[in-house]
Specification:
The protein is 25% helix and 37% strand. It is of the alpha/beta class. It has two domains: 33 residues; 94 residues, Sandwich (Immunoglobulin-like). The strands form three sheets. Strands 1-3-6 form a three-stranded mixed beta sheet. Strands 2-8-7 form a three-stranded mixed beta sheet, with no helix packed on it. Strands 4-5 form a two-stranded antiparallel ribbon. The longest helix has 32 residues. The structure holds copper (II) ion.
Length: 128
């Protein structure tokens, strides 16, 4: 009887340790493989994209968090990598993921007519 209890306790301890190891291992893997970027959207007269230039590593998945802190809608387009977010409403945020597979400098832009200076709402993605 004593032996069975010891075996049961041992198995429970193994299951607990294994679960924790899997959780922390996955989190470490996710951070190592995903590149996070925060991008603020505002019409050009109120600050434009912030930052205007984003630098990311080539071949690594990029998770782009776009926060529209403006009072009008904006959109996001990165034609070189077929990324498009049709509309980000005022005061909301969205996330999009892509993997830049080639190095260079690429244009990103607002795709919603947001102000008279909408056409100035552009930025540069640098892939290294
Ligand atoms: Cu805009």
């Amino acid at each position: 009887m004593k032996q069975r209890e010891t075996i049961a306790l041992g198995l429970m301890a193994l299951a607990t340790v294994g679960t924790l190891a899997a959780i922390f291992g996955y989190e470490r893997y996710r951070r190592a493989t995903q590149f996070d970027v925060v991008l603020i959207a505002r019409a050009p007269e109120y600050g434009n994209w912030d930052p205007r230039t984003i630098t990311v590593p080539r071949g690594q998945p990029v998770r782009l968090h776009i926060r529209n802190i403006d009072t009008v809608s904006h959109g996001f387009g990165l034609p070189a990598f077929d990324v498009a977010v049709r509309e980000i409403e005022a005061g909301t945020a969205t996330t999009t993921t892509f993997t830049p597979d080639r190095a260079g400098e690429f244009l990103f832009l607002c795709t919603v007519w947001c102000s008279e200076r909408h056409l100035e709402m552009t930025g540069k993605l640098v892939v290294q």
